[in-house]
Structures are given as structure tokens and as C-alpha cells.
Specification:
- This protein is 12% helix and 38% strand.
- With 78 residues, the chain is mainly beta.
- It has one domain: SH3 type barrels (Roll), CATH 2.30.30.
- Strands 2-1-6 form a 3-stranded antiparallel beta sheet, with no helix packed on it.
- β4 and β5 form a beta hairpin.
């Protein structure tokens, strides 16, 4: 995936949450645009917690992103 493609999703207004699928089967839910930083060849994703504050960072090579999926809002969510 090109960094411009990922930036387009992050900058979309209103922001729509999405799920990143990578080659090893791992997924990352992006529920807020501040949860991800896009660099030239990788994305830095805040992960590991559901309360809005990440526990750790994952560095994901953009070449390993195989699919992006829209994530529907959960009932009672934002």
C-alpha cells in the first residue's frame, strides 16, 4: 500500500474507523486518526487496549498491508 492511500483514509472527514489486515494474518483496528502515524514505508499503530489509550506501538511495513476494511461502530460507541 502506498502511504498516500493510507493518509487519504486517515484524513477523510468524517473519519470512518477501519481495520488493517497484514500478510501474517494480524489485524489492527484504527478507531481514531491519532492512533496511527504514516511514514514513507511503514505505519506506527497504537495497539493493545480498548479504552482508547494504547499499551504499545506496532510498526507495520506498508508492503505487508493486504486489505483495509471499514469497521462499523459498536452499539453504544462513539
Amino acid at each position: 500500500m502506498r502511504p498516500e492511500d493510507l493518509l487519504e483514509l486517515i484524513r477523510k472527514r468524517p473519519f470512518l474507523p477501519f481495520r488493517i489486515h497484514v500478510t501474517d494474518g494480524q489485524t489492527y483496528d484504527i478507531r481514531h486518526p491519532d492512533q496511527i502515524i504514516v511514514l514513507r514505508s511503514r505505519a506506527v499503530v497504537g495497539a493493545g487496549n480498548d479504552n482508547g489509550l494504547p499499551e504499545y506501538l506496532e510498526h507495520v511495513a506498508l508492503v505487508h498491508i493486504v486489505r483495509i476494511q471499514e469497521v462499523l461502530s459498536e452499539p453504544g460507541g462513539e
